[in-house]
Design a protein that fits this description.
The structure holds 2 protein chains of 2 kinds.
Chain A: E1 2-6, E2 9-11, E3 17-19, E4 24-26, E5 32-34, H1 36-52, E6 55-61, H2 67-76, E7 80-84, H3 94-108, E8 113-117, H4 128-136, E9 140-150, E10 154-161, E11 164-171, E12 174-178, H5 190-198, E13 203-204, H6 206-209, E14 224-229, E15 238-242, H7 245-261
Parallel strand pairs in A: 1-6, 1-8, 6-7, 7-13, 8-12, 9-12
Antiparallel strand pairs in A: 2-5, 3-4, 9-10, 10-11
Chain B: E1 7-12, E2 15-16, E3 19-20, H1 22-38, E4 42-48, H2 53-61, E5 66-71, H3 80-94, E6 96-102, H4 107-118, E7 121-126, E8 128-131, E9 138-144, E10 149-154, E11 161-165, E12 182-187, E13 197-203, E14 215-219, H5 229-238, E15 242-245, H6 247-251, E16 272-276, H7 282-285, E17 293-298, E18 311-315, H8 317-334
Parallel strand pairs in B: 1-4, 1-6, 4-5, 5-12, 6-11, 7-11, 14-15, 14-16, 16-17, 17-18
Antiparallel strand pairs in B: 2-3, 8-9, 9-10
Helix pairs in contact in B: 3-4
The chains are: A alpha/beta, B alpha/beta.
The complex binds flavin-adenine dinucleotide and adenosine monophosphate.
Chain lengths: 265, 335
């Protein structure tokens, strides 16, 4: 079983700060991590490999610094890694990102499964997984929260949907997007870290992927950011201390009044 | 590509066992407002096998000009390949200027798949939509970076322009009497193949999921132990709310993962969020801060949750809760 896991390096959410005057995000000095939801994808891939044998390849598109994310994946037990990095990929939206990643996946070749995180915590679209599947013309099972069965011919998964779980089976090649519940990510090991240090990770640019230049980066992206602004803070919290019978009663009466005013009861 | 070759607004309605889902009516509300701006038609596409005429008429009664029902046994429930093929057929045949779908598990899977094949721009999880009157570009606004900023996205050089819309971010379109409109039933022109086989469906134990609920009561670690849950559950039931949880509560096994609100759980936009013993960590806020009305009970006056709340009660949830239930009960009687 050959499994490819596309992972994204994202800024650590806790350290995201805003420039209050411009309403933009300050990127300098922000620590980068593997998209937390991609760790579940990596873990699931490793478990499948442990069961069926084979190989797990981590793939990312990003700046040279994204090598760190790949090394961390290797330290967790991933066998190989590829970095897609080139200035021309800058400004890619989910269409162009899916295009470049699917091309890299073609170049890696010979895969059975692709496992993506449900969404990245920075872009937060969840569109890249299904997008890659569309470029590769393979089926996608999204929101997978449980791998019920897997063998060399097919797998059975549970999908977490609005009204419950759908149980589906599918053969390969297949792309899964997974949610947190699917696995419990392991920590990097010392041995893994050593391996990561010595592993040669190929970096692929535009030329290596042989993509049509007009479809890359910002040029190839159908969407444009027209404006970024800070949401109006209309909320002003009305605080009440409720520490004895009278104040609790007053606080609750206030809630009832609020709910009535807003037509909620 | 000539932008003028594309016209009209199309929404993707969702059905479950033949019943049109509420998100479809919310999309109609969006579509009706946009139709006004653009002076064009508002059409609905719906995929399924067995949908009654009455259900389809409901879409017209709520404001659609045309309903196109693509009917095939392979479209009975959502499977990405036949659904995408059916939708691409519509894109090919009708050249829609704008396509809206719900940011549901179906919409968020189908739309990116189709957008890639149609080389269309797609914006996820929009909370507000409006046309630029000159260019006809749809200005699609969505929260980004955990709700810290809003981004407005457009698709200047491509059509169709596609967007998924957050469930519950608007109210469903009401039924209007005496509306005309056309229902077209089509069969698929392609051979619908799906490599995926749906084997079964396991329904939720809870009646409403936190994403569908109008009101959500969320518990945090302030709950202290699972044995305290019944009090909160009873309160939630009483006010007709679904039960949500912070990650710490889910990690401790007090509630299951589908209840989790936040970055690695669900993003919810109910009308009312009541947080009990939730500290309001940034990862939690990411999943709920765009809620319209927020009430928080926390013993710590400095809890972050108060920063996004409308009403903050600094107190012990176990003392406040019974009183609150009682007050609301009395209030009901008075009404
Ligand atoms: C990558 C990543 C993803 C994450 N994703 C999520 C996510 O999706 N959702 C999520 O929720 N968290 C998420 N977290 C975790 C998040 O950072 C917090 O740890 C978590 O939200 C805290 O949960 P809590 O508010 O229940 O617990 P705590 O932070 O421990 O807060 C408990 C609160 O209860 C109050 N309290 C205690 N006793 C009482 C009482 N008797 N009455 C009233 N109040 C009381 C305390 O004052 C305190 O504020 C994520 C973290 C990371 C790193
Ligand atoms: N630049 C990237 N490189 C590799 N994988 C990515 C990249 N962007 C997104 N992905 C994958 O696609 C998933 C969804 O991301 P997104 O659509 O950006 O929310 C992530 O969890 C990753 O698995």
């Amino acid at each position: 079983m050959r499994i490819i896991v596309p992972i994204k390096q994202v800024p650590e959410t806790k350290s995201v700060r805003m420039d209050e005057s411009t309403g933009t995000v300050i990127r300098e000095g922000v620590e980068s991590i593997i998209n937390p939801l991609d760790l579940y994808a990596i873990e699931l891939a490793l478990q499948i490999k442990e069961k069926l044998g084979g190989e797990v390849v981590a793939l990312t598109m990003g700046p040279p610094k994204a090598l760190e994310a790949l090394k961390e994946a290797v330290a967790m037990g991933v066998d190989e890694a590829r970095l897609v990095s080139d200035r021309v990929f800058g400004g890619s939206d989910t269409w162009a990102t899916s295009d470049a990643l699917s091309e890299a996946i073609r170049k890696i070749g010979n895969f059975d499964l692709i496992i993506c995180g449900e969404r990245a915590t920075d872009g937060d679209t969840g569109q890249v997984g299904p997008g890659i599947a569309a470029f590769l013309d393979i089926p996608v099972l999204s929101y997978v929260n449980k791998l019920a069965e897997i063998n060399d011919d097919e797998c059975v998964v549970h999908r977490l949907i609005e009204r419950g779980e759908d149980v589906s089976s599918c053969g390969y090649p297949l792309l899964l997007t997974v949610v947190k519940e699917v696995s419990d990510p392991r920590l990097p090991t010392l041995r893994g870290k050593k391996k990561a240090k010595n592993l040669d990770i190929p970096v692929w640019g535009e030329k290596d992927l042989g993509l049509d230049a007009s479809l890359l980066g910002l040029k190839g992206s159908p969407t444009r950011v027209a404006k970024i602004f800070r949401p109006k803070v209309t909320r002003e919290c009305e605080m009440t201390v409720a520490n004895d019978h009278t104040s609790i009663e007053a606080a609750c009466a206030n809630v009832a009044e609020f709910l009535t005013r807003r037509n909620l009861i | 590509m000539n932008k003028n070759d594309y016209k009209d607004i199309w929404i993707v309605a969702e059905q479950w066992e033949g019943e049109i889902q509420e998100i479809s009516f919310e999309l109609l509300t969006r579509g009706i407002a946009l139709r006004e701006q653009r002076s064009c038609a508002l059409n609905v596409m719906v995929f399924g096998d067995d949908i009654s005429e009455r259900e389809l008429r409901g879409l017209l009664a709520r404001g659609a000009d045309k309903v196109l029902f693509v009917k095939d046994p392979a479209l009975k429930y959502f499977l990405v390949e036949p659904y995408a093929a059916a939708m691409l057929d519509i894109v090919e045949k009708y050249s829609p200027e704008t396509i809206l779908a719900g940011a549901t598990s179906t919409g968020r899977t189908l739309m990116p798949y189709v957008a890639v094949k149609a080389h269309a721009g797609l914006t996820a999880d929009c909370t507000s939509l409006e046309y630029d009157s000159e260019t006809g570009d749809l200005l699609q606004t969505r929260p980004a970076i955990g709700g810290n900023i809003m981004a407005t996205i457009k698709t200047p050089g491509h059509r169709p322009q596609m967007a998924t819309v957050r469930p519950k971010s608007t109210s469903p379109a009401p039924i209007l009497k005496k509306r005309g409109g056309e229902i077209v039933v089509e069969t698929t022109t392609f051979t619908p193949i799906s490599k995926i086989k749906k084997m079964k469906h396991i329904p939720n134990e809870d009646e409403i999921s936190i994403q569908d609920a109008e009101k959500v009561v969320v518990v945090g670690r302030g709950l202290k132990k699972a044995e305290n849950l019944p009090v909160v559950r009873a309160f939630a039931d009483e006010i007709g709310a679904a039960l949500g949880a912070s990650r710490d509560v889910v990690d401790r096994g007090w509630l299951s993962y589908p209840h989790q609100v936040g970055l690695s759980g669900k993003t919810i936009t109910p009308k009312l969020y009541i947080g009990l013993g939730v500290s309001g960590a940034i990862q939690h806020l990411a999943g709920m801060r765009t809620t319209e009305n927020i009430i928080a009970v926390n013993i710590d006056p400095d809890a972050q949750i108060f920063k996004v709340a409308d009403i903050g009660i600094v107190g012990d949830m176990f003392e406040v809760l019974p009183e609150l239930a009682e007050t609301l009960r009395k209030h009901e009687v008075k009404q």
